[in-house]
Design goal:
This protein is of the alpha/beta class. 42% of the residues lie in helices and 23% in strands. It has a seven-stranded mixed beta sheet with strand order 2-7-6-5-1-3-4, sandwiched between helices. Strand 5, helix 4 and strand 6 form a beta-alpha-beta unit. Helix 3 packs parallel to helix 4 and helix 5 packs antiparallel against helix 6. The longest helix has 21 residues. The two termini are 31 Å apart. The mean pLDDT is 91.
């Protein structure tokens, strides 16, 4: 099943900016609607009409995050209604703190909801500062431990506070680079930096 991972932001609900995210480096992420949640660009770009998906939303026990999760559901409803997509929204509730226990709980809840055969898409825009690390660890677990799991797209959304322009980036290559580094280390390659530079050049 196609699964989409995101986190509910901590900004006050009235301060959560909505706009049309410009797809910088992946045309599939182009979505001509005003939204606040970049993961929706991946849902729009990678899900066909009539498909069924699951969405995992990490929600801290914090008033703003709880309200923003409701707003996320509204935007998800609108998109899925337009494309006739059936979806299951799974809210992963966590504590509102940066303790190791909370981060391990987040990791555990993510991997518990990843299954053999999943195609995974993730957004690393919102949440605690360590959240992208936790998401990447969960993606690595799913890809390496589960069977036939693919990590197809990792997105990051930003807003230029001067121009107010909103952009969404496909940063999947950064996730894949971690796997390449591990492979080079295990293979005891003579000049690993050369291989990495060749890979980075090919991605340009």
């Amino acid at each position: 099943m196609k699964k989409f991972i995101t986190a509910s932001p901590f900004q006050p609900a009235g301060c959560l900016k909505k706009g049309k995210y410009k797809a910088v480096d992946n045309s599939k992420l182009a979505y001509d609607e005003e939204i606040a949640f970049p993961i929706l660009t991946a849902v729009n770009g990678y899900v066909e009409e009539g498909e069924e998906i699951e969405v995992l939303c990490i929600q801290a026990d914090y008033a703003n995050a709880i309200e923003n999760a409701k707003e996320f559901k509204k935007e998800l409803d609108a998109l899925c209604g337009q494309k006739h997509i059936k979806y299951k929204l799974n809210i992963l509730k966590i504590a509102y703190n940066n303790t190791l226990d909370t981060h391990l709980d987040t990791f555990h809840k993510l991997i518990r909801n990843c299954e053999d055969g999943d195609d995974i898409y993730a957004c690393i825009t919102y949440g605690f500062k360590p959240m992208p690390m936790i998401e990447v660890m969960a993606l690595n677990y799913a890809y390496k431990i589960k069977k036939d799991v693919q990590v197809n797209c990792v997105v990051y959304g930003e807003m230029d506070h001067e121009t107010k322009e909103m952009k969404v980036y496909d940063v999947t290559s950064l996730y894949l680079l971690d796997g390449v580094i591990q492979h080079l280390a295990q293979a005891n390659v003579t000049d690993p930096m050369k291989h990495i530079e060749m890979l980075l050049e090919a991605e340009k």
